[in-house]
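In response to reviewer comment 3 from the previous cycle, which asked for concrete evidence that the modeling workflow produces usable outputs, we include below a single protein chain processed end to end. The sequence was submitted unchanged, and the resulting C-alpha cells are shown without manual editing.
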Amino acid sequence: MTATTVTPDASADLSKTYSLVIPVLLAIVPFATLPIGADYSFYRSWMITEAGAIEHATVLFSVIGFVIALLVVVNRQHCPRSWMMALMLFFAVGFFYIAGEEASWGQHLFLWDTPGWMAEANRQNETNLHNLHLSLDRIPKTIIGIGIVLSGLAWPIYSRVRKVEITNTEGDWYWLWPTAVVRVTALLFLIIWLLDRLMVQTNLLSGEGYSIGFQEHREVMMVYFLLLYVASIYVRVKARKSASL
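The workflow returned the following C-alpha cells.
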C-alpha cells in the first residue's frame, strides 16, 4: 500500500454543519433530557421508546443514506474506481434493511399486530428480524462499531503519527477510507458506546421496573456515521461531475 491521511479540498466535502454541529447535537440533546421528570420519565417516554425521537432519527438517517447511496450509483460514470458502485449498492441495501428493521417494517407506523409465530420468537413482540435472537442484533452492530472506531479514529491517529498521506484522489484508498468529516461522530459514538456498557454493567440509571442504557443512542450515532461516509463520497463524486462539464 502506497502512501496515504485523506486531505480533500474542503470545498469538495461536507460542511461543518454535518461533520460537527449535527453530531454534537445528536450526542448532547438526549443526555440533556435525562433530568426531565421523575425517574427519567421524559427520556424513557420520548427518547428511547420504539416511537421515540432517537428511533425516528435512526430511521430518517437510514432513509436518507439509502437515497444518497443510490445517487452515487446513478452517477457511477463519475466514480473513479469500478468497485464503488458495488460498495454503494451494498450500503443502499444496508440502509434499507436498517430503516425497515428499526420501523419493524411499518408496524410502528400502521400499528398492526405481530404475527403469532413471530410474536412467540421475537424478544420484543415486533415484526423484525434483529430481535429474534441476540446474535442477530449484537454481532452486526459490534462489527460496525469496531469498523467505525478503526476507520474513524484509529486510522487518523496512525496516519498522523506515521505521517502517511493519501494524496492520489484517483486511488482506491482515497475513496475507501472515510474523510475527516466522520471523526467527531466516531469519537462521540465511542464515548456513548462505552457509557452504554457502563450503564448495563452497573445499573447506575435504574429503578423499579426499568434500567436505562444508551443502546438506541449508540445506534443513531452509528447510522449517522454511515450516512456521513456515503454523503462524503456523493459530494466528491458530484464535484467530479461538475468539473467534467
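The first helix runs from residue 16 to 32. We consider this sufficient to address the reviewer's concern, and the full set will be provided in the supplementary archive.
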